[in-house]
Amino acid sequence: MKKYGLCIPMVLLFFACQQRKAKNEVDLVKSPSEQVNGFLGTSGDHGQMSPAAASPFNMISIGPVTHPGTHTGYDYYAKEFLGFVHTHIEGVGCRGGGGNILVKPIGNEEVDEKLLKKHESAKPGYYKATFENGISAEMATDHNYGVHQYHFPESGKMLKVDLAYAFLNRFEEAQHTAVGNTIKGWVDTKTVCDRGRYRLYFYMEFDHVSTISKSQKDSYVIYGTGNPTIGLKIGFSSVNEEFAKTRVVNGGSLSKTIEKSTLAWNALLGHAKVEGEADRVALFYSLLYRGLQSPYVVSEPDGSYKAIDGTIQKSKDSVYHGWAIWDNYREQMPLLSLLYPQKYGDIARSIANLYLYGKNDWSTQFEPSNSVRTEHAQVVLLDALEKGHELPLIKIKDSLIKEIEKLDFGSPDKALESSYDLWASSKLMLSIGDTMLANEYLNKALDYKTYWEKDFSDMAWPDVDRMGARGLYQGTLWQYRWFVPFDIEGLQSLAGGESAFREQLDQFFEENNYNHANQPDLQVPGLYNATKEPWKSQKLYRELMLDTVVQAYFNNNSKGIDPYIGRIYNNSPRAYLKTMDDDMGTMSSWFVLRAMGFSAVNVGEPVYYVTAPIFKEVELNWSSQKSFKIQVSNYHKDHFYIKSVQLNGKPLLRNWLTHQEIMNGGELIVETDSVPNLNWGTENQFLTKVSIEKD
């Protein structure tokens, strides 16, 4: 009896421990937003990102400005803060853009006291900083709405608001009034690269303030009360002040805004569920988060929006703006099409809508938000059309034609890029029944072969690895020579056939000619998928995502100048290669797609090459209740070669999937190995090719 009496408590203790262990394991399961590192890429020229409080596809993002700062006005290692601004455009050239409406908390109006950082934290939708003088600041965002909360020591509390502040002195003019505890009006600012202008209507409401005093033409001082806190609510609109005011009137508290933003981020990030090594999961969600910052929803609840000619229009769809299409059509747009098809449809229609109101390659003088470039928009339109989205192509046909008539063939890179646009436009014209124009454009697109043979055939010239040679933009002849994504079969033929093409790819990578710091050759690591050695793409993808590589090119330098050896993607403030901008989610999306096991073959054709995911399991979920699950059998974190693949229980011998096959839902089982399967993926290969339609 004594023996059993001792045993029963031990059994109870065992089950209690097991229950506690199970509970602790559940507690350790983090939501997608909790995995995000808000400081990734926020130091130096290693991504040009911001830790600002941001909500998805939202043109208002509230974050710190430091001295010194980078493209987004901030550097992680800087200690002195200048205040907090409300717009950021992530990781773009021309030293960035945005930085509207600076708010600075000060403890003593008579003393120019510096804000020196003591501690800071950031997560999706929320940012907080504390300073050595006892002041602390918190901020959170919802759609085009933001909340600030400033906590002061007992005495001397106020805010300085500078409406004329913008990065790189790009502020143009403002109109505003202060009434009671509010300031409302608009600010005009130059867009990125000073090519255009955007106007933001704003409404600001302060609490725990005694007076608002205008200190200079476009700045105010807000004086606090006996309360140690000053609050600020701010709303933005591209249409008018009333919409901005409505956001403030209906806006929630700081805690409610944090809660709402967290729910929104978890919903979007949760479209991709991944299971694997903790560091890889955290890096994945941190980069996916960066891919969902832009473009911005600029339409109002009643459908009104400002078009790029300054007129107010209405739409039944959500209207997006804030473009860097020359960069992110390559990676971010395919990612959005896969994870968020409904949003992608609205984004594509928003791009189509630009043609009705005076689209050009850069910004206009009436942009509804900060923006950059729109080259290759027709490629995105074709991509959306091929993926089943309705577009008003007949309505914008004349504008599409005018854009094609202005294509530039003046340099080797432009000749290839313009040929790609011609190919896309030929497909668009074919879709609306203009066979004659479709054939004309396609024949012109095939002239790429003449340009290619002139500048890219002979790689023995001494300038082939020199950045900017022969007028190239941010690339070399080695890097641009592969840019014929719409006709890989024709490119192989120009190179001398599949074997010669493969040997030239080998030389390209062995000599470290590949440049991941910029976009022109991002698709090249995947080109082995179109050869007899697809396993080389599997190896390259894993190296570029997670392993040590050699990178010889940065910005406009040529080879031999301080090459980089190490990882490209790091979950740290110095995240990327030097001079490697994220370009509004482009480089982040490159990683996210391949981490899940996909890469777009050719934007404009709904096909993805298959590679080994870096996780045990990936699940894509959509609002349609369908899901596509990818399971890795024989999983090992260092295995990246594909041994075999099954799609919905049947062997898949080809190394590609269509967009529709993924969207239909189902299960993909990828068996990996430490050595390549020299046969898998060599049957029924997908090579893009051009065929002329007959009348």
UniProtKB/TrEMBL annotation:
<dbReference type="InterPro" id="IPR012939">
    <property type="entry name" value="Glyco_hydro_92"/>
</dbReference>
<protein>
    <submittedName>
        <fullName>Glycoside hydrolase family 92 protein</fullName>
    </submittedName>
</protein>
<keyword id="KW-0378">Hydrolase</keyword>
<dbReference type="GO" id="GO:0016787">
    <property type="term" value="F:hydrolase activity"/>
</dbReference>
<dbReference type="InterPro" id="IPR050883">
    <property type="entry name" value="PNGase"/>
</dbReference>
<feature type="domain" description="Glycosyl hydrolase family 92 N-terminal">
    <location>
        <begin position="36"/>
        <end position="211"/>
    </location>
</feature>
<comment type="subunit">
    <text>Monomer.</text>
</comment>
<dbReference type="Pfam" id="PF07971">
    <property type="entry name" value="Glyco_hydro_92"/>
</dbReference>
<feature type="domain" description="Glycosyl hydrolase family 92">
    <location>
        <begin position="253"/>
        <end position="671"/>
    </location>
</feature>
<dbReference type="Pfam" id="PF17678">
    <property type="entry name" value="Glyco_hydro_92N"/>
</dbReference>
<keyword id="KW-0106">Calcium</keyword>
<dbReference type="InterPro" id="IPR041371">
    <property type="entry name" value="GH92_N"/>
</dbReference>
<dbReference type="InterPro" id="IPR014718">
    <property type="entry name" value="GH-type_carb-bd"/>
</dbReference>
